[in-house]
Each structure stands twice: as C-alpha cells, then as structure tokens.
C-alpha cells in the first residue's frame, strides 16, 4: 500500500471508528450505523491493520480507546464534521453564501433577531446559521465564522469590531419597590441581589460607581439575562441589567428603576471574527450591515 493510500482510510471505516469511540460500544455503533456488529468490527480491524496501531483496548465486557485512539478520535470527529458541512453546503447550493454565527442568548433574541429580516431581504443569497454561545470558544473546532461577544477586545487570533457600549441599571418589580423602604442607593445593599454568573463583579462595580461599599453577602446566580429579568419581575430581588435588553419591560412597567445612577459597563459588545475568516464574503456583508444598523463607523482591534 502506498504511503498516500495508507494515510487516507475510507470514510466508512472512519464513521465506524467515530461511532464506537463516541458510544463506547460496538453494538451501539452498529445500531446507529444500521450495520451488523461484525461489519463494524471488521472496519475497525481494517483501520488498525492499515495504521499498525491498536485503536481500542478490548476485554470481554468493555471497549475503550487506547492512547493513540483517543488522539486520532478527536481529529476524526473534526474531519467528519467538516465533510458533512461541505456536503450539506454543496447539496443546498449555499456553501459560498453561508454564515455560521455565534450569538449571545438574550442579546440575540431581544436585539438582533428583530433586525435580521432586513439583512435577509438585502442579502437573499446568504443563509445565517445561528449557534448560542456565552463564553469564548474555538472557532475552528466549533466550525463558526464569527461571534457577537460581550467582554473585552482581546479574543486570541481574532479581530474584534466594537458594536456598542452597554449601560446597566438596577431594577426591581413595582410590587417589590412598593413593599420595601428603598429611597437611596445605599438601601439596595440590604436587599437580595440577583447576579449574573458571567459577570461576577458587576454589582461591585456599580456600588463603587455610587461611592458605596459593595455588600459581601451571597445572592442568587443566573446564567442568562432573560432568566434574571424573569426572577426580578417575580419579586426575588434587585437585578443589574443592561438597558438595551429590558427596554420592553421598562416600557410596559414590568420593571422599574431602583434608586441609583445607571453605569456604563467596562466591557462592551463586539463582532469577533477569526483572522482566517476576515475575507469570507458573508462575514464582510454581515459586518457592514450590522454596523449600518447601529449607525457607527467601525473600530477594529486585532489581537
């Protein structure tokens, strides 16, 4: 067998290997692939013979990846995912017009989604595939082209374009406000505070901006702003929320400002694009459109 052929096993064998590695069972892999257990076993044997390495450790009851198998499995998962994406793009005739975009849950649903119909109307040849991500991730591993991110412009190997600053304010439900003696910002320190897990220092920054010492007691923690807003409307405490994300609740009177001045967050919203995707046409089109919606000139920072 030539060296080139030896390094390129057939996709059926790779699919069998990936399924066994993921499921930890020849039987489960055979069921998923609609093959017999013997057929799956033969595919794995072919791979092991081709590479001259044992990919699995087997005993009478269990099968587990060998050290070499674990390393190879990660690369195979990524390669098969890329092949599936390429096939889907080819069959749907939208490969060159696809944008795989990571969005923040609440920002995406409350601010971005109402604007997306305008982008679709202006760029009918581009299909946006949305994925929800809260923190940083590996663009290549996740197969994403860009991300709307809240934080600082220091994402490694990526270009960050400032979209907007963020102003946060303390809010409560009208019933909560009426049932408590809240006349000034210092009173808030004695009330239950609702915290965002991704912004552990937000309340401390706000109290500092008011010239007050932040309380040290525990408080409820949440992962998404939408959940914090619901908890606040239910009267569970005081929340520090971005004005842009609760405009509807404020307008409807479901939330009301608590005493104290709004504060501009130290972090901001950015469109983050990995360096190898800067020339991708759908990314450029989306970036220009997004900045047009915000009405600002781009401020680009590369890291």
Provide tags for this entry.
alpha/beta, D-Maltodextrin-Binding Protein, domain 2, 44% helix, disordered C terminus, two-stranded antiparallel ribbon, 10-stranded mixed sheet, elongated, 22% strand, Arc Repressor Mutant, subunit A, 303 residues, 14 helices
Q: How would you describe this structure to a colleague?
A:
Helix 11 (202-209) links the parallel strand 7 and strand 8 (221-222). The chain has helices spanning 3-6, 11-23, 26-33, 37-51, 67-92, 105-112, 116-122, 139-142, 174-179, 185-188, 202-209, 225-233, 247-252, 281-294, and strands at 56-58, 63-65, 98-103, 127-132, 146-151, 158-172, 193-196, 221-222, 238-242, 256-257, 263-274, 300-302. Helix 2 (11-23) crosses helix 3. The chain has 303 residues and is α/β, with parallel strands linked by helices. The chain has three domains: 5-91, Orthogonal Bundle (Arc Repressor Mutant, subunit A), CATH 1.10.10.10; 97-164 and 267-293, 3-Layer(aba) Sandwich (D-Maltodextrin-Binding Protein, domain 2); 166-263, Periplasmic binding protein-like II (D-Maltodextrin-Binding Protein, domain 2, 3-Layer(aba) Sandwich). Strands 3, 4, 5, 6, 7, 8, 9, 10, 11 and 12 form a ten-stranded mixed beta sheet that branches. It has a two-stranded antiparallel ribbon with strand order 1-2.
């Amino acid at each position: 067998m030539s060296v080139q052929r030896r390094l390129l096993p057939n996709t059926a064998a790779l699919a069998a290997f990936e399924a066994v590695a993921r499921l930890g069972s020849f039987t489960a892999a055979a069921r998923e692939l609609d093959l017999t257990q013997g057929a799956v076993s033969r595919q794995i044997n072919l791979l092991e013979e081709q590479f001259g390495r044992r990919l699995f450790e087997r005993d009478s009851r269990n099968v587990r990846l060998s050290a070499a198998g674990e390393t190879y499995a990660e690369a195979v998962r990524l390669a098969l995912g890329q092949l599936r994406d390429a096939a889907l793009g080819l069959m749907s005739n939208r490969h060159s017009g696809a944008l795989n975009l990571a969005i923040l849950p609440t920002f995406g649903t409350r601010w971005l989604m109402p604007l997306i119909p305008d982008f679709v109307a202006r760029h009918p040849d581009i299909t946006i595939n949305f994925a929800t991500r809260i923190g940083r991730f590996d663009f290549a591993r996740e197969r994403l082209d860009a991300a709307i991110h809240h934080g600082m412009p220091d994402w490694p190997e990526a270009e960050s374009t400032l979209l907007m600053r963020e102003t946060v304010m303390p809010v409560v439900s009208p019933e909560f406000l009426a049932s408590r003696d809240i006349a000034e910002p210092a009173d808030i320190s004695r009330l239950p505070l609702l915290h965002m897990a991704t912004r552990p220092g937000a309340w401390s920054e706000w109290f500092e901006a008011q010239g007050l010492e932040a309380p040290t007691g525990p408080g409820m923690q949440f992962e998404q702003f939408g959940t914090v807003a619901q908890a606040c409307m239910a009267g569970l405490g005081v929340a520090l929320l971005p004005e842009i994300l609760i405009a509807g609740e404020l307008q409807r009177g479901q939330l009301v400002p608590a005493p104290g001045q709004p504060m501009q967050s130290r972090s901001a919203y950015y469109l983050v694009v990995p360096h190898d995707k800067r020339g991708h046409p759908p990314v450029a089109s989306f970036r220009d459109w997004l900045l047009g919606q915000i009405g600002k000139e781009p401020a680009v920072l590369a890291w």
